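User: Show me an example of a complex going from sequences to structure tokens.

Assistant: Sure. Here are the input components:
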Amino acid sequence: MTTTRRDFLKITALTTGALVIGFDLEGSTTFHPNAWIAIDSDGIVTLTVGKTEMGQGVRTSLPMILADELDADWSKVRIVQASPSNDFKRLGTGGSWSIGGGWMPLRTAGAAAREMLVTAAATKWGVDAASCVTRAGVVTSGKHRATYGELVAAAAKLPVPDKPKLKEASEFRIIGQRKKRLDAPQIVNGSAKYGIDIRVPNMRYASVARGNVKRWKPVENAFAISTGVAFVAKNSWAAMKGRDALDIEFEPAPPFDSGEHAKRLEAAARAGGVVTRKEGNGEQATRHIEAVYQYPFYVHAPIEPMNCVAHVHHDRAEIWAPTQAPNTVQDRVAKQLNLDPSRVTVHVTLVGGGFGRRLGADYALEAAELSKAIDAPVQVLWTREDDMQHGYFQGASAHYLRAGIDSDGRLAAWTHTKAGSPHNARGPEPSADELKSPETAQGLSWGVYDIPYAIPSIETGYVPISIPVKHGPWRAVFAPGSVFARESFIDEIAHELQKDPVAFRLELLKGEDVIHAGDGDSKLEIDRRRLRRVIELAAEKSKWGTPGRARGFACNVYDGSTHIAYVVELNGSRIERVVAAVDCGLAINPSGIEQQVEGGIIWALSQATKSSITFRDGVPQQRTIADYDVARMRDTPAIEVHLVAGDPNPFGMGEPPVPPLAPALANAIFAATGKRQRSLPLAL
Amino acid sequence: MPQHAITINGKRQLVDVDDDMPLLWVLRDALGLTGTKFGCGQGICGACTVLRDGEAVRSCQISAVDAAGNRFTTIEGLSNHPCQRAWIEEDVAQCGYCQAGMILTACALLREHPKPTDQQIDDAMSEVICRCGTYPRIRKAIKAVKL
């Protein structure tokens, strides 16, 4: 399976179908109207979180949606993490779809429970349900008053309404508030449990020397498994030492050189591929400018390295994993062990950084294999070097861009072809036939075919190139490389035509207000009114055009939903300030959104200014954070976030802040130095 | 196996581990104090930071034999500390994994400089890596701490 937009939409759709499943727990004092909500007789509201928390704030924002429609008392809300089951068949977290996909189903679940509590109260008091008001876990009608806790026994006997009445936006009391993270107290006192912190009785610790084993000398406590040789010990340190002492020779990796690959990508992008969008023709152009942009390999490097605890019994298995893909883990572990998936329990832990890496199941399959081999529970912990050498890397891409200028000095034609690699790390790549489909090619080239600008002639394309190194999902998926190329090249054209880069973009956003790009599941909507508004806002707030600082601009519409514009400001070679204007629709938790913008900018700064992964002889040349440095406190600019709500529905913010940062910075560097940099990391 | 006497959060602990086992694993695997996190094992990322007599040190770089006889504070040893309160107040954490190291590094900074300058915050806090990018809020939280 590749990570295309289609997958995320499927996940969303299937999740939606499984939402309101009513079941009464007869005789129980808990009201459990659906899989998302349980209210006990003390009025404690337990909400289920169906998405993995990896820093994007879903364990706070998703409960806010439920709690608001439920009119729960936020101080009495508790959360539990969902595990794969009949109620939760699609728990995968990716593509910034948790909020967008959860919005209506969670509201409906909350409103259904609220309606049942109201019906129970109205029946008890003999009043019209319409006279009942709910607020913070209490129902009132005239002189009558009951807490939700007092009503749960009666409410539990009622049928679950199919189509409960949802609130008007003006009635939201929790949505739109700056709510602090529900997990914060446990995070700051050290009791929050990540995958690495799982301890089960009799658990062994293991470290694995990974590779294709050519020869090894067996020793006590060492076990050959599919990924290499595991050393099992009583603690993590002994496991790592035992593994380091193993006498192993590995087969060489399949040859691969990232420098050679970049040249091959460039040639492929210049040659052209599957056409993903074609409008007008470029015949009006009288002269052309062209450029090739390169986006390199990166590794996710979450601070919590990959790890997993597995306990395989003869007829069932239990997995504790910091995973973005619990159902995939369940299915693939079950298949590996020849068990029915219902016999594999997956506990989703907190995740110390995901960024797409934990959409894989490799860490869990390996732990399950080892647990079976040693017939004991085991934690397989990857070292930092393991994590960096055996990543599901972000795959490199090259972008060929060509602009046609007409005799009046206007941008008349646009060509953008991306050469890159469909993900190969989580399953087979798309077939050659599939790759001929524009829809598939579009899904692999966000930021290319969905160019928002009005240009008389547009032709975009995609060329797939298979590579032998593992590569997979990345924060903002395929957008960062494409948007770096597109927004930098627009800047090049603006300078070529001696136009202000912001004014030039606004000029190019005239014409139809709403356009669509792409086919089928890859069809995206671009609302130019929303994009113009964030561009104007970022320009205004940054005092664009005033002297004193070199500034760079870039914008993007992420996956047809979040509209975002950045101004990066330099003071000499220091990145002093980033001004962000963001329209992600209705803001569920403004504090959380601002966090994602700050964090997305700093994440993108690491790629834009610090490190990339290079391969020689098929091996990543970076092994530790010393070789692959990332942004730190001293690299952090002042960040201003300005929110606009251009849509009554909310959209996710984990990924949209990433893509426009690198081009905005590259454009600022050009403004400061007159030097155009077309590959990353940038030299400041 | 040798026995080492190490004082953790005010309590003297006797641990039977190899001399070369880093304090990080003594805490996590021998004593069950998993609030101290493993990030790189090379003293680069700062996730495993603990306090030794109030000074921020990397627990992955101190062997059990060197730790013996010393007093350490881990995140579990802080209770309603002004830094912890400021971290909640400023809504700092994203994934939260690095925050124990961040908070303890900030405690050490504030002990030395109760009102640190931006430069002092940069110097001290750049020793700990956060991939989620919580740095702006950490800076705010440190400035908001009232000791």
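The lines above are the inputs; the final block is the predicted structure for all two components together. Residues 5-189 of chain A form a domain with the Aldehyde Oxidoreductase; domain 4 fold (CATH 3.30.365.10).
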